[in-house]
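Give me structure tokens for this 713-residue protein.
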Amino acid sequence: MPREMDLSGQWEIHPVNRFDGQYDSLVNWREARVPGHWQEIPEFERYAGKMVYRKRFKFMPDPTKRMFLRLNGAFYWTTAYLNGCRLGSNEGYFFPVEHEISGLLRKDNEAVIEVDCPNEEDKSYKRQLTGVFHHWDCIDPRTNPGGIWLPVEIVSTGPARLADPLFTTAYIDGKSSYARIIGRATIDLEAEANLTVRISFTPLTFEGETQVFERKIFKSRGSSAYHYNLDLKEPTLWWTHDHGKPDLYTLRVEVTVDGEDSPSDAWETSFGVRTFEMRDYIAYLNGRRMYIRGNNYPPGDARIARVTPERVAEDLELAKKCNLNLLRVHAHVDHPAFYRACDEKGMLLWQDFPMQWYYRPEVEDQAARQVERMIFLLGSRPSIGVWCMHNEPFRLFDVRKPFGPISIGRAAASLLFWNRNRDKMDKDLARKARFLDPHRFTTRCSGARGLFRETGDAHYYYGWYMGPLHWFHRVYKKHPENLKFITEFGSQSFPNLENAIRFMPARIEDVDVKKLEARHHFQRLFMYMFPRPKLNMKRFASLSEYIQATQDYQSELNRYHIDRIRRLKYKPGGGLVPFLLLDSNPAVQWSVIDYWRTPKSSYYAMKKCMSPVYAFTIFDKPSYSRGSIVSIPVYAVNDGWEEAPVEVRLMVKSPVGDDVIDRTWSETLPADCEALALGNPELKLKWSGVYDVRVVMGDSRGVFENAYKLKVR
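Here you go.
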């Protein structure tokens, strides 16, 4: 759909309690930039509720064209007016809304948009489908996302208009001689006519010929959906960056009314030919089994209008360098630039619908409508591998406020027993998503497995919320079926000193802990509870020393989980997705990259643990008695699709500095193999203290070392 005018830039705004389209009585309008958020303006830094936007502009309409006012994204309810005429209303922040304005445009025009984004006081019974933007412990709780965060445009078509296109790869034959592409689009027509629909696939990232498919149809007045089965010959496939090249086509759909020389309307996107399946939570890309190494991706910025293609590119480069092949878009829909970049960079996505924790029953119909909008908006993108309807659909208390026995009891009841969100609404939404897009994996919610349920993915916060870190070893040993696919685990850490002091004092004795808790997500209770030794700020002489201790614990906790999950590769585990990649605002939280995109030391520790070829050991206990005999198993795993020759060395020093074990294994790891046991030497623990255990691996990528502490009491 051609863009006739971009209305981005300076608008005027005014807060209101009630608005009916009349604004003659409103004075003292303020300037605001669109795209943007009104809280970026100092005067409205803490404002939430209704805001009226207006813009005057000149435009000479073409009377032969149909014209539309398009709002690409606004938080959260909108009502649009043009030249005094009410155009219509919408609910939902992440998808475009178009209002036909044919016949309403003139030389001098005024667009008015009422935007409503109130704070919701009862966070355990929410109404707005904004996901993490309104209820999360990783975004400043004072933040309201209100505003028009994507451009406002005037677009045009001829008499026939395209809407809701969706194209996916249904099947690729074994020799890649053809790919079956399933497509659909809605065509809206002012009057009955004969039409030609032209669908073309033009190589975008490689050399090749354009393949064109044409259909002649007769269409009556109104809107109808049309479906297409297309066989693309000798397709070039899209792969993740770690397994190949993310090759893309330019997919273009044109509709032309017979007798006209040019298309009435057209839609264009980059398109990758690929299939993606999850068979019992083991992934297959283009029919080939692959192990998922991922991380959770928050909004690129709490003020999502600030996201730029350059910042997205930086995020994805950091993710790739961390050996990740999947990002879970955590309980939100992100900026359009993010999805384009993931297609181009070969990063798979687990896409959450923007529902976080509990919602009131009245949202169910609106949620079903917005799931449809999400699938039509993103469903043609090859990077999208998974649809997830809801993150942790439990009645969690308000993270901004102190919680007590009643709120904890409600949360526990919704976890353990039937609740309407998880057991009715999410099932209905998943059923709708599978109907609209049957060629992607869809799950009703994230985080339910292991809570007396045997389906879905799991969240495990041992070492933080759920008890001491070593309790996770019990799950690993006794309930490996619950580690089939893990999409959250982790602990908090501080940013590096140079960035931490942007929002806190440099001297540890001057730190306002209550402010860190209220504004920057610091969870002092858990930071002081389970880490060993305890990360009590008063025990440390300097802020830099304390920061490093929090990052060291985060590194240890992440590796503890990753080693055990990778040990269970394909038996039964299909992958792991820690929490969290980066910060959406200046914060103390679960990220390994801070808000300013500076990696913490825990980022480099995770990069090592996520190496496609990896060697490690696992201890059964957090500590051992002197005089006992302990086994030190050495494992190696290869996630690549080519065999990998490696040399692995185990070195153990006693507390008094003696070399008590020095063993080397040379092995060629099969392609995409399960974790192989290379050896299991035994050691009698003669000394109390800490034994230094090192697993050193060398392969074609270089040499890396895993260092462990074996504690003897």
